[in-house]
Amino acid sequence: MMKHSESATFDAAFKALDAFQIEIPSWGFANTGTRFGKFAQAAAASTIEEKFADAAEVNRLTGVTPTMALHVLWDLPNGVGDVAAVKALESQFGIRSGSINPNLFQDQEYKFGSLCNPAAAIRAKALEHMLDSIEIGKALGSRDISLWMADGSNYPGTQSIRNRIGWLEDALRASHDKLAPDQRLLVEYKPFEPAFYHTDIADWGMSAHFARHAGPQARVLVDTGHHYSSQNIEQIVAWLLHTGMLGGFHFNDRRYADDDLTLGSIDPYQIFRIFHEIHAAVSDGLQMDIAYMIDQSHNLKGKIEAMVQTVVTAQELYLKAALVDREQLSELQQSCDLVAAEELFRGAFWQDVRPMAAAWREAHGLPVDPLAALHTSGYVERAAKERGSRSLAVSSYA
Ligand code: LRH
Ligand code: MN
Are 114 and 105 in contact (CB under 8 A)? Predict the structure, then answer.
């Protein structure tokens, strides 16, 4: 018979997991690599149909990934013209289109930037792509337009940083003004790569400025891989929560830079600390609307396997943080009882929540161990057989 405290913990655990969903990236299923090469996988997806099929399999196994992020030029090369086909795939596979990610970094014209390019004609081309992306979002019923730009420079003195700020302010306000009332513009920052001297949206402060300047439907997107290794990411999250500017996350892990490794593979405590800031803000009554999304490139791991592993890890870390006794922690923080506060906080991280997560899955008719269920499903082997010959030929990035 479960003791009261145990059942209370289980109730809190089930409540937390009921509230957690995470969006998966279409590009996480494709053959991707680094500048040193790409190792093709037979089961990799190379068509939008295969990406929806793989997303449906991940959602069948986990039950918490009903939407898939789309990158415009990779998934809708014909822009709005591909919307009908995508809608058909949505109903065929039961997966909704999630955030719409413009591609402002691969066209030859964007060598010196896109929305920040000194050439007005190239800025206009980039703005047109932004507006197309917003129209695609409206047509698909997607709430978030999630913008990341590679814009920046490689050598001091070669670009006017302040001119570029002005051009980007204008472009993001013009984009914001085209949003539907329920849409949001998420502005993603990144300190470097592919630009290695200055990046136009390099940190959370710059992103928050551009979002505020654009308008009330713009927010900041935090990609966990887009920070210097010594940066305190959960402090940035606390600031964005306090200022009401947090729009969402691109979750991944890294040892060095923007490594796009699987969540929790290097520093699971980092994600636990981020989730704690969010749970604490919720219990303090802060209003927020956070998009949890995965942004990884699975260069060596099996792509669907890595995605299922990531979703399960995200659930476990979200649950561990949800079970922190925040009332007792606040008292210990107030009394500056450092060791007791740390032991309570870290103790929540150490607890093994996998049995509770398995019980939640069982209660929802889901496989108690999604990874094991993927292996027994034979899905990857079938995909490799069906796709094998073609997907081994690697062409564009994703
Ligand atoms: C840039 C980024 C961005 C995506 C891309 C796939 O590093 O994080 O969010 O568009 O990865
Ligand atoms: Mn990202």
Answer: yes
